[in-house]
Every structure is written in C-alpha cells, then in structure tokens.
Design a protein that fits this description.
This protein has 444 residues and is α/β, with parallel strands linked by helices. Helices cover 35% and strands 15% of the residues.
Length: 444
C-alpha cells in the first residue's frame, strides 16, 4: 500500500558554490565549459556538477554533496566506482609503464577472456573508444562488401562519426540529413535513415538500393535516445533481410555489450550479427573500444588485409588491465542473474507506486538498464513516439532527485544503470527519493 500524499514540498537546494565557480572558469577554457555537450546540464536545472570522487554506488561533487549514482559513467561502471579489483590491477600494471605503442601480453589476456566466453565473434581489434570502433567497423563492412551505402535507424546513436551523425529526413525511406555543422552533404547522402520497428520501410530500402547497401547498423537495444526496446521478431527479420541481400549486419553494443549479459544483446536475443562493436565496459570504464567478427571478415583488416585501421593507444596496457579485472568479475557464475533480478525488483517497486498514484509515467527496463518515459502509451519503440514536451517533467524530477541525493544523467533521453555496488538498502533509499520527487512533479 502506497502512503498517501502529504507535505508536498521541493527538497532544499544543494550547494553548488564550488561547481559554479569551476564551471565559470571552465567556460574560459572549453566550448560551453565542457568536453562533451550533455555535461553542460542544458536540459536540466542548474549548472553542471563537477565530480570529485566516486566509490561503489556513490558520487561526491566538488561541494561534497553525496549522490547515489545511476549514470555509472554512462554505463560501463557495471561494478560501481573505484572497484578494488580494478584499482589494484591498474596500479600493479602502471608501475611498469602506461603506454608503449607496442604489443603486450595484456592484450592477449583480455582478448582470450572475451573470445573464449563469446561465441558471436572469433577475432577482435581493440580501439580507444566506441566511436572509433564503429567508424572502423563501418570501413571494414564497406571494404568487405565493396559497397558504399550505410543503413541506420532514427533514434540510434553510433558516436560522432561523420557518416553516422545524421538524422532522418521526410519520407518512409530517406537519405540522412546532416545533424551537425561540418559534415559534407555528400557524406550524409551515403547514409539511408529509416524508423525503428518498421519492416515496410526496411523492405523498401532494400528494394530501392539493391546491391548498394554495405551494412545495416543498429543498437539492438537502442539506449541513447530513450530506451527504445525492439521486438525480437524485428531484429530477426533484420538478420534475414541482410543475409538475403549480401549486406553485413552490425550490432552496435557499446551500451548493451557486457551489460545485459557477457554476450550482450546478441546473446540475449540469440541473433548473430556479422560485426559487433563494444565500448568502455571492456576497459573497466577507461578509454577503450573494440570491434569483432568472424575470422574470415576480420582477415580484411590491415596488416592482414586491405582495410586500414590503426591507433597508438589501441590495446593500451592500463585499459587492458582494467578490462581484465572487470570482465573476470562479470564472467563469474550468477553475476548477471543477481544484477538483473535486483534491477527488476527495483523497477517493479517504482512501477507499483506509479500505478497506485496513477501518474503518467512508464519505466522500461532490460537487464540492468532502465528509462523513465513520461507517457501513458506503454513501451516506446521509435524516436518519433517520444513527446518532447514530456521532458519538462524529467527536468523537474532531475532537480528533485539531485536535491535528495540521487544522480541521473542530465537529460530525459538518457537511460539509467544499476551496478553490482547498488545494494538493496541503497536501492531502497533511491526508491524513496524517486517516490518523493514524482509526488512533487505531479502535485507540487
């Protein structure tokens, strides 16, 4: 039984004095005062919080405010902040040097750990970021198929590569339109954009551009523009139409990889793409990415093949060490069962409260990922189904949560993550803060 609403008042504002001072100084150094746009807090209230420390499920900012963290460095901190196994492994490796630009045994160790527990890929190439991994995978697909066009889905984000930083134009099937200055129109014209969850558009695209599409790229769990969960049937159809047309299927698992399970969304849905990309989770949150495929497809990568890709920091020993420590924890029996079950209980408790209060909120969840959608229409599967006006409610909730000691990503289009460090007691505290915040949003 949910407690009746009483004493609906906003929580006292946290101190941001030092963060405000740091932000003012940062604006003299960096465009907008930040080194990545969403950090500027433009979609929520107040100035950005400058983080000083993270430990377990908690963050502390420059003003010593403490928060339960559901951002987890945008997902990769699946063990929480400052995990002792990762910290100790990194410190042990660092005493011998931090960058060589040459092979190390650590690369072999991390690759073996990944490949021996993931039947969806046979060979892998490490990069320094998820964006770099996707860019390289696209080049590989074009080189392998000898085709130029890319098909992507509106609402899926694949990093800031020119050819993929595009939005949909008008019509069922359309060439992408540049969504950033500095991207030549000719680049975007090689990218076809269609809506998610639309078989008709997919069929039409392959009819119009037969034998021209090198690769179809999708987040199998779209989680950069809300959590736009797809039916398995749609992903399976995508696999089949790519096979029938000699087009490679690329699963961008920078978020879902090693998050839903050790084999990511590929394993969750039991669908084998031709190429998979991964992000910072394989480096314990340090700057790293990777792409993998069959040995036959990967043989096209230089120096074995003609598709060139390189990087001085690829396979960086510090990132490899962090990855070995993190993935060694993830591969332990029961890890994902415990994490996903804990998240499901947490979300179901929130949904029960929302139902009893009759609030217009939907929480979608898969594995340890969740998303607040201020709607009554049920699961949202396409970007154009999100009402931009609903973000005002998230904006209010975000302020209330910060003032109650809960940190979420500063945009209503971002998802939340539960880590192994989020105990039942911590989740119960967060749950109450969310209850109170929603009461303020809808009754305050």
């Amino acid at each position: 039984m949910v407690e009746p609403i009483k004493n609906i008042t906003s929580a006292p504002e946290i101190s941001r004095e030092k963060s405000v001072e740091l932000y003012a100084k940062a604006k003299t150094y960096f465009p907008g005062g930040v080194n990545s746009p969403v950090r500027a807090f433009k979609s929520v209230y107040g100035t950005p919080l400058f983080i000083k420390k993270g430990d377990g499920a908690y963050l502390w900012d420059a003003d010593d405010n403490q928060f339960i963290d559901f951002c987890c460095s945008w997902g990769p901190l699946i063990l929480g902040h400052n995990h002792p196994s990762i910290r100790e492994k990194v410190m042990d490796v660092m005493q011998y040097g931090m960058s060589f630009g040459a092979p190390t045994a650590l690369e072999n160790e991390l690759a073996e750990l990944i490949l021996s527990n993931n039947s969806f890929i046979e060979k892998i190439r490490f990069t320094s970021s998820g964006t770099e991994a996707v860019m390289s995978a696209i080049r590989l697909a074009r080189g392998y198929t000898k085709r130029n066009k890319i098909l992507k889905f509106e609402g899926c984000y694949h990093g800031h590569t020119d050819a993929l930083l595009v939005k949909a134009g008008s019509g069922l099937v359309t060439f992408g339109e540049t969504s950033s200055a500095g991207i030549p129109e000719a680049f975007a014209k090689e990218t076809i954009v269609i809506a998610l969850n639309d078989k008709e558009a997919l069929q039409k695209a392959f009819e119009e551009f037969k034998d021209e599409i090198a690769v179809v790229i999708i987040e199998p769990v779209p989680a950069n523009n809300g959590l736009l969960l797809q039916h398995k049937e749609f992903l399976q159809y995508l696999r089949e139409i790519c096979t029938d047309n000699g087009t490679l299927l690329l699963f961008d698992e920078v978020i879902s990889g090693f998050r839903l399970s050790f084999t990511g969304a590929s394993g969750y849905y039991d669908i084998k793409p031709d190429v998979i990309t991964y992000g910072k989770i394989i480096g314990g949150g340090l700057p790293v990415g990777a792409y993998g495929a069959s040995a036959e497809i990967m043989s096209n990568i230089s120096p074995e093949g003609a598709v060139y890709q390189a990087g001085t920091l690829s396979g960086n020993p510090v990132a490899m060490a962090a990855g070995i420590a993190q993935l060694s924890e993830l591969v332990k029996p029961g890890f994902y069962d415990d994490l996903n079950r804990k998240t499901e209980v947490f979300v179901n408790n929130l949904l029960q409260f929302i139902k009893e209060r009759n609030y217009p909120v939907q929480i979608d969840q898969i594995g340890s990922i969740f998303w607040f959608a201020f709607t009554t229409q049920g699961t949202i599967r396409r970007a154009d189904e999100i009402d931009p006006a609903s973000m005002e409610n998230f904006k209010k909730m975000h302020r209330e949560l910060l003032n109650r000691g809960v940190y979420m990503g500063p945009s209503g289009y971002e998802v939340g993550f539960v880590s192994a460090a989020h105990t039942t007691d911590i989740l119960d505290k967060a749950k109450q803060a969310i209850f109170d915040s929603l009461d303020v949003v809808f009754n305050g």
